[in-house]
Predict the 3D structure of the following.
Amino acid sequence: MKPAFIATLSIFAVTCTVVTPALAASEDFPQRPVRIVVPYPAGGTADILPRLVGQKLAEKWGQPIVVENRAGAGGNIGADAVAKAAPDGYTLMATPPAPLVVNHNLYTNLPFDPTKFTAITTIASAPNVLAVRRDFPAQTAAEFLTYVRENPDVVTVATQGNGTTSHLTGAMYSRAAGTKFVFVPYRGTSPALADLMGGQVDVFFDNIGSMYAQHRTGYAKILAVAGAERSPLLPDVPTVAEAGLPGFESSTWFGLVAPPGTPADIVDKINTDVVEVLNMPDVKAKFLEQGVLAVGESPEEAANFMEKERLRWKKVIDEADVAIN
């Protein structure tokens, strides 16, 4: 019996040496600055939200949170950098849907597999909106629908880049309306929005957070909300469905992920602290100022949600016959 007992003790000792450092890793995290990559330019909602969260995390963790904008290729450049980063929790990505659930249905040779990212949580969500330059001929959603049907291949639509949510929402609209748009891709929200306000493009299907201030100040006009219901920010603005396209719905969300293979204990630590930040009243209020609702769910719930979104956007891409040139 003694040899068996000694063997049992030996196994227990080995187990302890394996488990204890793993526990310490999450308990001590972080011990140096954490980088959050945003695969889009600075200035848009995708950039503002992680900066708000990062500020609170820096206070909580006692370590700097560095938000790094790495734009290009519809979010693929930044996403690729994160996919190849060390899976230790010190490099994260905060992004709208495209790099996580859309681009692998559009690009044939992605250098990374978006399904392999480690989901942490969804930071926020917001409905997309149909916005036009302030002097656009149609000034209501119903007038817009009539106008684009009567003028195919005339209306220019800004996008955050090929395959982004704004692009796919525009493609959904054109297909549902039975017309065609001229899509103009930009490198993110800020340059697209600047040209909309400057009158260089006609339309921008962007999230309400990015467009609300411009609508309120008259630099652009939101004609319709693409959510299932009207937005409390714009109770007098109809939904796209109400304005003539029944069943139309499109929203934007902002996910937080880590590189593939990031240990579960580190992911759980980050999730717990980020969700705590998202539930802070002042953070919720600042998110509402951006026109978005704070979310915050478990890593498992986030992963399941992203998988459903992959299937949903694949259907949109297939039906609208969207392709990257």
Notes: Residues 127-251 form a domain with the D-Maltodextrin-Binding Protein; domain 2 fold (CATH 3.40.190.10). The chain is about 45% helix and 20% strand.
